[in-house]
Amino acid sequence: MSEDTLFGKIIRREIPADIVYEDDLCLAFRDITPQAPTHILVIPKQPIAMLSAAQAEDKALLGHLIFAVSEIARQQKLDSGYRVVINTGEDGGQTVFHLHLHLLGGRALGWPPG
Ligand code: 5GP
């Protein structure tokens, strides 16, 4: 189990978010500080603190999250491409300790990241 975070509050509708997709396992909403014209966070409803804390039993959920990102990208018409980022831990720049996939698109993205 992981600690409750503000993403848990978004799942429970205790704080507002611009939700763009939901199914039984995950929720997707727009990032409050977008880094690209489209910047959506996809989170599991069952919290995992970070990717490095995932267990073998989470494999199906992790696959579900990545497939959900691809569906959301299609819905958002990111036909010319996009990037999926999972910041993990301190060096990975993670600030909210509820696993989330960033879906970034709508402009050409630079590489390498900062
Ligand atoms: P991390 O840095 O952990 O990879 O990403 C956390 C993300 O959550 C950041 O991009 C940040 O802008 C976003 N965020 C933080 N607080 C809120 C909030 O209250 N609502 C929404 N929609 N996004 C948030």
Describe this entry's structure for a reader:
The chain has 114 residues and is an alpha+beta fold. The chain is globular. Strands 1-2-3-5-4 form a five-stranded antiparallel β-sheet, covered by helices on one side. It has helices at 6-11, 59-75, and strands at residues 19-22, 26-30, 38-44, 82-85, 101-105. A hairpin with a 7-residue loop joins strand 2 and strand 3 (38-44). It contains two helices and five strands. 22% of the residues are buried. The structure holds guanosine-5'-monophosphate. The site of guanosine-5'-monophosphate has 13 residues, from strand 2.
Search tags:
114 residues, alpha+beta, five-stranded antiparallel beta sheet, binds guanosine-5'-monophosphate
Give the secondary structure arrangement, pairings included.
Blueprint: H1 6-11, E1 19-22, E2 26-30, E3 38-44, H2 59-75, E4 82-85, E5 101-105
Antiparallel strand pairs: 1-2, 2-3, 3-5, 4-5
What is the count of β-strands?
5
Which spans have pLDDT < 50 for at least 5 consecutive residues?
none
Major β-sheet profile: 5 strands, antiparallel
Strand content: 15-25%
C-alpha end-to-end distance: 31 Å
**Biggest β-sheet: strands ordered side by side in the sheet:** 1-2-3-5-4
* Bound ligands, named by name, code or SMILES: guanosine-5'-monophosphate
Describe what is shown at a glance.
This protein is α+β, with helices and mostly antiparallel strands and 114 residues long.
